[in-house]
Amino acid sequence: MRYLLLVLSMLLLPATSARADVNVSVAIAIPGVSIGINVPAYPRLVRVPGYPVYYDPAIRLNLFFYDGLYWVFQSDRWYVSSWYNGPWDLVDPYDVPAYILLVPVRYYRVPPPYFHGWRVDAPPRWDTHWGREWQDRRKDWEHPDRRVAPPPAPLPSYQRKYSGKSYPRELEQQRSIRTERYRYEPREAVTQKHYQKQHPQGGAPGQQKKRDERGQDHR
């Protein structure tokens, strides 16, 4: 019911734009399709200090890179993709990785209005915003074991050469290019799930160690 109301409310909102080179509009999220975001070129990804997460400080979009995938926060929803301009899959709020949720408020380039008044050097108050049921299911989201924090995934800089008309729109083409140029596979369960959804022939996550031993090409 909550998602139905969100979809209905989204349909009543006018389309908006972020900046000249990044267009954002409202759209219903269907797995594996556009959500109205247009990022015309490979983002300038910078590490969030102290976190295995990257963001683009110049773009007018809440875009992050973590565990080998891109994450976007728009219209109170999280989306994920293996390529910087989608297509995107909707992520259930209960499944968003902790290290994405922990990114401080100041790194959101287009913070929603309810962020106002929250500390910029602290994570958004997701527990307050998403309510008691979310709190009960994500009790430890603010306290992951930093001793076993994953190293940041290598940046998919090979995507830099694919922009504009050369950007691969078909999932099959994206899978082929990524398999050839980027051997990293997600480590977290939710990122594995979405990776396998977009790359069903990409191999099981358990193959990561073997591929790492053979070497990687992230260029």
Please list the strands of the largest sheet in the order they lie side by side. 3-4-5-6-7-8
Q: What average pLDDT do the residues reach? A: 81
How much of the residues is beta strand, in percent?
5-15%
Order of helices and strands: HEEEEEEEEHHHHH
Biggest sheet, open or closed, and with what strands and sense? Answer: 6 strands, antiparallel
The number of helical elements comes to 6
Secondary structure class reads: alpha+beta
Explain the overall architecture.
- The chain is an alpha+beta fold.
- It has a domain of 153 residues.
- Helices cover 25% and strands 12% of the residues.
- Strands 3-4-5-6-7-8 form a 6-stranded antiparallel beta sheet, covered by helices on one side. Strands 1-2 form a two-stranded antiparallel sheet.
- Strand 7 and strand 8 form a beta hairpin.
- It is globular and about 45 Å long.
Q: How does the SSE layout of this entry go?
A:
Elements: H1 2-11, E1 23-24, E2 37-38, E3 46-47, E4 53-55, E5 63-66, E6 69-74, E7 77-81, E8 89-91, H2 98-101, H3 126-137, H4 171-181, H5 189-198, H6 208-214
Antiparallel strand pairs: 1-2, 3-4, 4-5, 5-6, 6-7, 7-8
Question: Main traits of this protein?
Answer:
single chain, 219 residues, alpha+beta, 6-stranded antiparallel sheet, two-stranded antiparallel ribbon, 6 helices, disordered N terminus, disordered C terminus
